[in-house]
Structure formats: C-alpha cells, structure tokens
Amino acid sequence: NAVPVITIDGPGGAGKGTVTQLLAQRLGWHLLDSGALYRLTALAASRQGVSLDDEAALVSVATSLDARFEPSEPGQPVRVILDGDDVTAELRTERCGDNASRVAVMQPVRDALLQRQRDFQQAPGLVADGRDMGTVVFPDAPTKIFLTASAEERARRRYRQLKDSGLSVTIDALLDEIRARDERDMNRSAAPLKPAEDAQVIDSTGLSIEEVLDKVMAFAGQA
Ligand code: C5P
Q1: Nearest-5° angle of CA 106, CA 11, CA 36?
Q2: Which residue's alpha carbon is at the smallest distance from atom 13 of ligand 1?
Q3: pTM over 0.90
Q4: Alpha helices per DSSP H over 136-170
Q5: Distance 107 CA to ligand 1 centre (A)
Q6: Contact at 8 Å (CB) between 157 and 13?
Q7: Closest Cα partner for 110 from 183, 88, 118, 195?
Q8: Which of 46, 134, 150, 176 gets the highest tally of CB atoms within 10 A of its CB?
Q9: pLDDT tens digits along 109-140
Q10: Where is this protein localized, as stated in its record (predicted)?
Q11: How many CA atoms, within 13 angstroms, populate the side-chain half-sphere of residue 12?
C-alpha cells in the first residue's frame, strides 16, 4: 500500500488528538483515532455485560464491533456511532479510557482490531493517532512522530478541558490517573508504548498546538 501515513504516537493528553485532527484537515487526509477502537471495545463489552477479564468474549466484541466514524464540523470531535447510538461523549470519559487501557493489554484483542485499523490507509493519505501506530500497525510509515509532554502538563491540560465541560475534578486525582495509565501502557508486553526507532520525538510541554503542528509538518516534508 503506497498511500502515505503519518503516525502520531504517545501517551494520553500529549495533544495527539488535536494535532492529528488539525493535520488531517490541513492535508485533506483521512484520520484514524485508534484509541477510539479500544474505548469502543470496552464500552460495547460493558453494554453487553461482558467482563473486562473475559479475554475470549472481548475478542468477539472487538471483532464484531458495529461502529461508524462520522466527520464533523472543523474543530469538533469526530462523531462516533456504536450500534446506532451516538457515543461520542461517553467514549471520552476517564472511566472509558481506563477500561480501554485494560482491554488493550490483551494481545488477542489487539490482533482483532489490527486489520480494521489498516483499512483506514486510503488515498490521498492517513494521519494515525495511537500508541503503536509507528511500531506495529503502520511500521512502513514514512513519517513517525512520538508526541509527549510531562505528566504534570498533561494533567493541567486535561483539567482545563474537564473544567470547561463543567465536571469537577482535582489536578492531583488526574495526575494519579495519568501516571497509572502511562504505567500500564508502557509496561505491558503487548505493543508497549514506546517511540519507533525511526520516530521523531516532540516534547509538547510549553509548546502551542500551532508550534507542534509546524514541527510535524516540517518532519513530514509538508511545511
Ligand atoms: O488514546 P486514548 O486515550 O483514546 O486511548 C485509550 C487507551 O487505549 C490507551 O490508554 C491505551 O491503553 C489504548 N490504546 C492502545 N493502542 C492504541 C491506542 C490506544 O493500546 N493504538
């Protein structure tokens, strides 16, 4: 498949989602939010009464996911439809993210979602956001970015987002969750979170979205 791919991997809260969306928009390319597939698997499982410990049942949930991604207004999140219901907001909760990272440690679940992710590689190009886009799903991607930021910075960003949407949380609680999720994502044996050998690492701590975007465009030869 000669369609170009830019992979954006890194821990949660580093700004991958926003950067991926703006980049895809600017280039007119497709977008893959791979985390949404793990979140959908966790959500579909809980709706079907499937335990997050039941690997075989989770594989069948992942294989038979009936999900659609619908383009939205610029700047708005892509709408995600599961079994006909709009689950966009539910998918973004901390609980769903945490459950996603629990199902994501299971290699058979990852295998079940692999081809679905690769199917997003369509002309004229793809920007793929996740943890293992450059290492496992698109190892031949010509441009690989590993976007990171300090845990404290990521907690502050998440706090601002949640406060804007009216939820009450503390920075300390968010920091604990972020550290726990990092720990699980980096130390699992199945596709652990780490930069691909040929990835460009960008630390977004203290950078604006525009500054990050300019760096990525320069690495991709699209500046
Ligand atoms: O990026 P997002 O926060 O939506 O991802 C939720 C969880 O899904 C992550 O914490 C990670 O455990 C898992 N994930 C993964 N591989 C990906 C994308 C997400 O394991 N490519």
Answers
A1: 60
A2: 101
A3: yes
A4: 151-164
A5: 13
A6: yes
A7: 118
A8: 134
A9: 999 999 999 999 999 999 999 999 999 999 99
A10: Cytoplasm
A11: 27
CA distance 119 to 122: 7
Task: Work out the pLDDT band at 171, boundaries 50, 70, 90.
Answer: very high
Phi-psi region of 77 (alpha: psi -120 to 50; beta: other; left: phi over 0): beta
CA distance 218 to 17: 19
Ligand 1, atom 3, lies closest to the CA of: 12
| ipTM attached to this prediction | 0.99
Question: Tokens 């502050």 belong to which residue?
Answer: 156
Residues 147/12, Cβ–Cβ less than 8 Å: no
Binding residue positions for ATP? 10-18
Side chain identity at 206, as an amino acid letter? G
Ligand 1 center to 131 CA (angstroms): 6
Two tokens, residue 46: 């809980």
Could you give the CA distance from residue 189 to residue 72 in angstroms, rounded to a whole number? 36
Residue 38 CA to ligand 1 center (angstroms) comes to: 6
Give the pair of three-digit tokens for residue 28. Answer: 């007119």
